[in-house]
Amino acid sequence: MVGFFFFWIIAGSSQSLFTTSLTESFPHNEFIRYWVLHVIIVVAALYGAIVYRFDLQKKDIIHSWIGINIIAAIIYPINVALGANYFYLNAKPPGTTFYALLGPWPYYIISLEFAVLIIFSMVYYIFHFLKKTSQTTQAN
Predict the structure, then answer these.
(1) CA 113 to centroid of chain Cα atoms
(2) For residues 25 and 76, is the Cβ–Cβ distance under 8 A?
(3) What is the Cα 124 distance to its own chain's centre?
(4) What value does the CA radius of gyration of the chain take, rounded to a whole number of Å?
(5) CA–CA separation, 6 and 42 (whole Å)
(6) What is the mean pLDDT of residues 63-88?
(7) Do residues 111 and 102 lie in contact, with contact meaning Cβ atoms separated by under 8 Å?
(8) To the nearest 10°, the Cα dihedral for 116, 103, 96, 75?
(9) Who's near 76: CB < 8 A, 6+ residues apart?
(10) Which residues contact 57 (CB under 8 A, 6 or more apart)?
(11) Is 78:84 a contact under the CB 8 Å cutoff?
């Protein structure tokens, strides 16, 4: 489960830190909530990875990708019923975000499938490289 959520947190929340979908600015409470929540989630995941020495496996990439697709399949009908847009399945987020590069709705969802696999893989290899570098440094 660690790998499962680690990829979601690092890939999803980090992306939201670089390309926000905020329509409010400081000092609005939505602005503050957005930044505090996303930064704390990323810091918590990195803290766990460093302090508890998470051991991510390549299979965690696929498990996380399958899991996010299962949750998206559950959330889509909920979005339709409620008129909501969780996971941005029904429309792109407002503003200029990463989603702007992926094409119009609903085609951006297919592009996003490949982007998620690439991003999860990048997170894994960066994590793996840093862990190996740390182990080599500690051995010397």
Answers:
(1) 12
(2) no
(3) 13
(4) 17
(5) 9
(6) 94
(7) yes
(8) -50
(9) 89, 90
(10) 3
(11) yes
Q: What is the pLDDT of residue 140?
A: 61
Helices (H), 89-139: 107-139
66 pLDDT higher than 90: yes
- Global pTM reads 0.77
Q: What tokens were used for 19?
A: 């390309």
Q: Which two tokens stand for residue 26?
A: 């400081």
Q: How far apart are CA 31 and CA 137, in angstroms?
A: 40
Q: How many H helices and E strands in the chain?
A: 5, 0
User: Could you tell me which of 39, 45, 50 has the C-alpha nearest to residue 5?
Assistant: 45
Q: Is the separation of the CB atoms in 93 and 22 below 8 Å?
A: no
CA distance 109 to 88: 9
Across 1-140, where does the E strand assignment appear? none
Higher pLDDT, 64 or 12: 64
Task: Delimit the domains of the chain by residue range.
Answer: 2-139
Q: What is the largest CA-CA distance in the chain?
A: 59
Count of alpha carbons within 13 angstroms of residue 46, beta-carbon side: 13
Residue range 109-127, pLDDT digits in tens: 999 899 899 989 998 998 8
